[in-house]
Amino acid sequence: MSLSPYESMQKIFKFFRLQYHPRVEKFLSSHTVANAGGVSSTFRDSKTTPFHWRTDFVGNFSLVTDIQGSCDAAMKLWGYESVNDEDQLLTFNPLKKPPWPEMLVLNSSKAHDEIYAK
Question: Fewer CB atoms inside 10 Å of the end CB: C or N, the chain?
Answer without folding.
Answer: C
